[in-house]
Amino acid sequence: MNTKHARKLLGAGAVILAGLLLVGCGGDFKLPTTTLTTSVPQGRSSQPLKVTFTRDKFEGEVSFSITGAPTGVTAKFDPVKTDKAGTETTLTLTVGEAVAAQKYTLKVVAQSGNKKKEQTLELTVQVKPDFTMATNPATLTVKQGAGQTVTINLTRNASATGAIALTLEGAPAGVTGTFNPASATAATSTLTINAGATAAAGTYNLTVRGKGDGLDKTAAIRLTVEAVPDFSFTFQPAAVEVKRGESANVTVALNRVGGFADPVQFEVEGLPTGVTATFDPNPAPAATATLKITSGATAAAGTYPIRVRGTAGATSKVVSINLTIP
């Protein structure tokens, strides 16, 4: 083969190879002309945005990036590069807390080799979600066995839109709190505080905790549990010995709770024959009274449980004292 003929063959081969390369690199891809939009509060991330494109006789990997993002805004694509047949990715934007709350125009950039396409993305940065809580009333008194309600006032800014989960902390034994609703989407919730009959009287600092939109807030309640007006009494001493023909004095100690102030009327039940008992004063208006037991000369020797009944209004209590006649 002469040199001239060889050159012709080589030239033809180069033309064929170039044609094959053009066929392999032919076609194109397109991003939509529509504008992507998303709103993200400061310090939060967006919901994943789907970014799609179309292929027109084009086979090749397509990688993605963002331009025009302000400082503090980062973008994550998944995947960051498609395979040769892929036509979509998802974009998540994360906005730092220091990014100014305003609208920004960004570009989604799709690139494969020297082919580069863009789609507009409008990002609205909202103020960081926030809410406040207040209790009304913040101080309340509940009697044992009763309940009261407290209004929980919730004030949200424009970015705080989620439900707020409410719980009560610091309640003593016997005290319960129920929220309605417990997951508040409106501006108020009602807290019902119930003090059981066994709840100890006293003053307690309770905390209402609200969690929502990634926030954790508290509000205070000062609760006073009051004892139900009541009385009880004991004997000092709790047993007494009285010889026949003699007397003995026993102190009756009255315990008043819950503001109970009524006088207590006493009477004795179960006295043996020959024994008398008197109270001074009777009824008893204060904290003590004196029970005088007299054993007559004919009283029979033995030990007797004597029942003493104390009555005030509709309330009646009975306590026993042992009397021994030697």
Write the layout of secondary structure elements.
Blueprint: H1 3-24, E1 28-30, E2 36-41, E3 49-52, E4 54-56, E5 63-67, E6 73-78, E7 88-95, E8 103-112, E9 115-126, E10 131-136, E11 139-143, E12 146-156, E13 164-169, E14 175-180, E15 183-184, E16 188-195, E17 202-212, E18 215-226, E19 230-236, E20 239-241, E21 247-257, E22 265-269, E23 275-280, E24 288-295, E25 302-312, E26 315-325
Parallel strand pairs: 2-9, 11-18, 20-26
Antiparallel strand pairs: 1-4, 3-7, 5-8, 6-7, 8-9, 10-12, 12-16, 13-15, 13-17, 14-16, 17-18, 19-21, 21-24, 22-25, 23-24, 25-26
Can I get a quick summary?
It is built from 1 helix and 26 strands. By secondary structure, it is mostly beta strands. It folds into 3 domains: 25-126, Immunoglobulin-like; 131-226, Immunoglobulin-like, CATH 2.60.40.10; 230-325, Sandwich (Immunoglobulin-like).
Word description of this protein:
This protein has about 325 residues and is mostly beta strands. The chain folds into 3 domains: about 25-125, Immunoglobulins (Immunoglobulin-like), CATH 2.60.40; about 130-225, Immunoglobulins (Immunoglobulin-like, Sandwich); about 230-325, Immunoglobulin-like (Sandwich), CATH 2.60.40.10. Helix content is about 5%, strand content about 55%. It has 1 helix and 26 strands. The strands form 7 sheets. It has a 5-stranded mixed β-sheet with strand order 11-18-17-13-15, with no helix packed on it. Strands 2-9-8-5 form a 4-stranded mixed β-sheet, with no helix packed on it. The radius of gyration is 44 Å and the shape is rod-shaped. Mean pLDDT is about 90; it is low at about 10-25.
